[in-house]
């Protein structure tokens, strides 16, 4: 058995019972107490769901707006022309274009967190499938990123809207804010995220849907949340 470092030993002593179930506020306080880094860590939620996303009727995917924002600067690219391009720029898009934006992305400039497109631009965007698809950036009408209302889509992306998608093992995770956020803001964001996942329960889910919820910080341990406190879980 590997010998524990002083830091690990101290962490284990502070945590005590690793089987303990935490309330959200209690978990946030524990993560603050355990913080050893100087940077503003992200608070992350991981949920183990009773789904197998290899089956289409068990896929969990969507968007949720975090009321208190994410604390991150979100870079948004928009495929649009004419008035729609002007609307996207006015709403705060970082880059707007058509074929020129496609060329720019093909040249390797893909430093974006969200890509949005008007429906008429999907012929151009489709040629970027192999670049945008693996990065999870491909515009999608179901997620509201293919839309004539590009201004609202840009504002949503900049204002705290995040995408969620279940992974192969049935786990879904997301950052819900920064350690510097107040407990109230983080708790509100946590509730919005969990509610969105519960509402997105697919028709093919069998048995218990929300099996485990963990709250952690970028460099901190994962603390198990008492799912009995979650409504409708």
UniProtKB/TrEMBL annotation:
The keyword Ribonucleoprotein applies. One of its GO terms (cellular component) is cytosolic large ribosomal subunit. InterPro entries: Ribosom_uL1_bac-type (IPR005878), Ribosomal_uL1 (IPR002143), Ribosomal_uL1-like (IPR023674), Ribosomal_uL1/biogenesis (IPR028364), Ribosomal_uL1_3-a/b-sand (IPR016095), Ribosomal_uL1_CS (IPR023673). Gene3D superfamilies: 3.30.190.20, 3.40.50.790. One of its GO terms (biological process) is translation. It comes from the Bacteria. SUPFAM superfamilies: Ribosomal protein L1. Keywords: Repressor, Ribonucleoprotein, Ribosomal protein, RNA-binding, rRNA-binding, Translation regulation, tRNA-binding. Pfam families: Ribosomal_L1 (PF00687). One of its GO terms (molecular function) is tRNA binding. Signal peptide: none annotated. Binds directly to 23S rRNA. The L1 stalk is quite mobile in the ribosome, and is involved in E site tRNA release. Protein L1 is also a translational repressor protein, it controls the translation of the L11 operon by binding to its mRNA. NCBIfam families: rplA_bact (TIGR01169). HAMAP family: Ribosomal_uL1_B. Belongs to the universal ribosomal protein uL1 family. Part of the 50S ribosomal subunit. This is Large ribosomal subunit protein uL1. The lineage of its organism: Bacteria, Pseudomonadati, Pseudomonadota, Alphaproteobacteria, Sphingomonadales.
């Amino acid at each position: 058995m590997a010998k524990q470092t002083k830091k690990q030993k101290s962490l284990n002593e502070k945590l005590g019972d690793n089987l303990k179930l935490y309330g959200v506020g209690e978990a946030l306080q524990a993560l603050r107490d355990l913080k050893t880094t100087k940077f503003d860590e992200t608070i992350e939620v991981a949920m183990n769901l009773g789904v197998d996303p290899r089956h289409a009727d068990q896929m969990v995917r969507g968007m949720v707006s975090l009321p208190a924002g994410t604390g991150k600067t979100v870079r948004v690219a928009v495929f649009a022309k004419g008035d729609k391009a002007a609307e996207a720029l006015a709403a705060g898009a970082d880059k707007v274009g058509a074929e020129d934006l496609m060329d720019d992305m093909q040249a390797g400039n893909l430093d974006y967190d969200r890509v949005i497109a008007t429906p008429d631009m999907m012929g151009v965007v489709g040629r970027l499938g192999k670049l945008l698809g693996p990065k999870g950036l491909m515009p999608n009408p179901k997620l509201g990123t293919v839309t004539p209302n590009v201004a609202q889509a840009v504002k949503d992306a900049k204002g705290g809207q995040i995408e969620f998608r279940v992974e192969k093992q049935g786990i879904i995770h997301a950052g819900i804010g920064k350690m510097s956020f107040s407990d109230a803001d983080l708790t509100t964001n946590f509730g919005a995220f969990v509610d969105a996942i519960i509402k997105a329960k697919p028709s093919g889910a069998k048995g218990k849907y929300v099996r485990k919820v963990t709250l952690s910080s970028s460099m901190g341990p994962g603390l198990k949340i008492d799912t009995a406190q979650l409504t409708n879980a």
